[in-house]
What does this fold into?
Amino acid sequence: MAACAILLLSLPAWPAGWHKQHAKQAAPADPGYVFALATANRFLHAWQSGDLETGMALLTDHVRHSHNPESFEQFFSAASDRAFEMARGTGNRGRYRFAVVLVTAPGARVRRRFSEIIVVNTGKNDWAVDKLP
It folds into this structure.
């Protein structure tokens, strides 16, 4: 009988433990985060729309010189259906990393490629992509 009473008294506490509590991630305090996020978004939109010219303008010199031109053309070549997902960025003043998922639909299947993009401040609040997804 005492076991039943303990069981009944502990029932209201069980639902609270069912859902895992996640610590809230603090939003970056650096105003440059907004510029980094906007740059990442513009770059990924250029990829989505197959806009090589805009995409190239958003790259650092380091990235432009470390890849051959054909790889850029292939990366930006317009596929029929493309989209992207981007997570909240992490980093500090001058350098942010964003987890991304590049989503394509070749034929009847959906393909998801998980990667990241790194955006850096190149000076005078000018931001550029320093790592391709």
Q: What stands out?
A: Confidence is low (pLDDT under 50) at residues 2-11. The chain is about 40% helix and 25% strand. The two ends are 62 Å apart (CA to CA). Residues 86 and 100 are 4 Å apart (CA to CA).
